Amino acid sequence: MATFDDLVAEGAAVPVEGWDFSWFAGRATEARPSWGYARLLGEYLARAHRALDLDTGGGEVVATAGTPPPVLVATESWAPNVPVAQANLAPLSGVVVRTAPDAPLPFADGTFDLVTSRHPVRADWPEIARVLAPGGTYLSQQVGRASVHELSEYFLGPTPVAPGRDPEVAVAAAYAAGLRIRRLLVESLPMTFDDVAAVIVFLRKVPWIVPGFTVDAYRDRLRELHDRITADGPFRATSARFLIEAVRPAG
């Protein structure tokens, strides 16, 4: 059995660029939403003419979704992800544009008939509506309220649930931007972490769960967590996901 120090060293060394979670196989589990986002994305991309994927990460989801449209563009704001996304989307003739957080999208009004995003940092609904062509569709799987909150509270203590990831808030914002909702689905899903290395990699890869997380800053809590997992089994949490599909009216 790996020691605590071995697991900490391993977790600290794993690269976290991109949005590929294959490293977690056999180390952590997360149930997938029943709607199958990658399958849906593939169906929508196959029908699109000009598509934009926002906050693409390393482009992994789009790259494996199937037949790309004639024009495929993706945005990403975290610099280490940009070359990963470029490499993944180049075989699809996709173009990756680095954007600044919270800046307007660098595209003309009505450019895209399909805009997508999987786990966007923040859905900028007015900008989404602006770049959608009349009759165009926005399809997105997003992180819901209190997702993996058990892990946040383990390291931070009692913590208010961050606002802004509520599906009903998203619906209201979409309507305010002039879009109409075609579909909204919400699910809570079980997660497990089988060792402390998996927890470390997850918190490095998804930094908003424990803002400012470093191994050195939380070493004592990590050791306690290692002892807990060793004695009682995997650390269990709950992820929250919602699927939202919105359209820009054609009229």
From TrEMBL:
Q: Which residues form a coiled coil?
A: none
User: InterPro entries, alphabetically?
Assistant: 23S_rRNA_MeTrnsfrase_RlmA, Methyltransf_11, SAM-dependent_MTases_sf
UniProt cross-references to SUPFAM superfamilies, sorted A to Z: S-adenosyl-L-methionine-dependent methyltransferases
Q: Which GO terms describe its molecular function?
A: S-adenosylmethionine-dependent methyltransferase activity
Q: Pinpoint the Methyltransferase type domain residues.
A: 53-138
Q: What top-level branch of life does the organism fall under?
A: Bacteria
One family from Pfam that matches here is Methyltransf_11
One biological process term from GO is: methylation
Q: Which UniProt keywords apply?
A: Methyltransferase, Transferase
The protein's name is Methyltransferase type 11
Organism field:
Actinocatenispora rupis
